[in-house]
Design the sequence.
């Protein structure tokens, strides 16, 4: 990597443009290994989740970030230390147009418009998802400041647990609540690494067992932040009243 200091400054510059609301900052700074941010539509849950993924993938953090530092694990095949993140959502369009776009950008812009600075993306590492049009990624690799290569996998809940079974991950990020069978498989993916789980969701399905397990707040290994329209500055009173 040429001029590492300059690239690090560019990585930090992109993160410094993100000014989280107090509730988002509270979520970022939770240190327990399972955490959830819940709230209404358009309150900023997804941008909060994707920036956390970007920070963990690059191991580049703003000064205010006092939360996780995900170390990675030794790959059983190569013997090399790696970091693996699985990013999931409800459908391929949401995964591509919301999460992937915010995180690394799109093939049409050369993966330059996301929160992760393009010089930190490993050249020619983008792998397209098979059988899905429109530029959805299967995976992409990112260099981190600690010298580890982070691989980010993109998965859709409708693909089922079978599409997850070969992966070993350090972090799982779910944008919206997964089906119980998928959630169980995702927990299996981080079991061997003593990994981390986070979710951003709107409780459209009510008090499901997964939601209840966080909502009860009786498990010291789980953290929950609830963010309403009154906790954000980009929704006007008119928008709230409507």
Sequence:
């Amino acid at each position: 990597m040429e001029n590492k200091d300059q690239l690090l400054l560019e990585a930090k510059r992109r993160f410094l443009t993100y000014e989280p609301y107090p509730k988002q900052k509270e979520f970022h700074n939770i240190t327990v290994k399972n955490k959830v941010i819940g709230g209404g539509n358009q309150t900023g849950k997804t941008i909060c989740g994707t920036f956390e993924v970007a920070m963990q993938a690059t191991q580049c953090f703003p000064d205010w970030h006092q939360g996780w530092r995900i170390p990675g694990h030794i790959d059983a095949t190569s013997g090399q230390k790696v970091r693996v993140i699985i990013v999931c959502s409800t459908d391929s369009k949401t995964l591509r147009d919301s999460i992937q776009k915010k995180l690394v950008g799109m093939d049409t812009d050369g993966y330059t418009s996301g929160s992760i600075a393009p010089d930190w993306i490993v050249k020619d590492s983008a792998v397209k998802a098979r059988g899905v049009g429109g530029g959805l990624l299967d995976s992409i690799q990112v260099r981190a400041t600690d010298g580890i290569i982070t691989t980010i996998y993109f998965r859709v809940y409708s693909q089922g647990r079978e599409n997850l079974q070969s992966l070993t991950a350090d972090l799982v990020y779910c944008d919206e609540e997964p089906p119980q069978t998928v959630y169980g498989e995702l927990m299996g993916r981080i079991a061997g690494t003593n990994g981390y789980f986070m979710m951003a969701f709107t409780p459209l399905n009510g008090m499901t067992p997964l939601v209840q397990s966080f909502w009860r707040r009786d498990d010291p290994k789980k953290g929950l932040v609830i963010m309403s329209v009154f906790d954000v500055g980009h929704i006007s009173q008119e928008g709230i009243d409507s």
Notes: The two ends are 50 Å apart (CA to CA). The mean pLDDT is 87. The helical segments are 4-16, 22-28, 45-58, 92-103, 180-191, 209-215, 237-241. The longest strand covers residues 81-89.
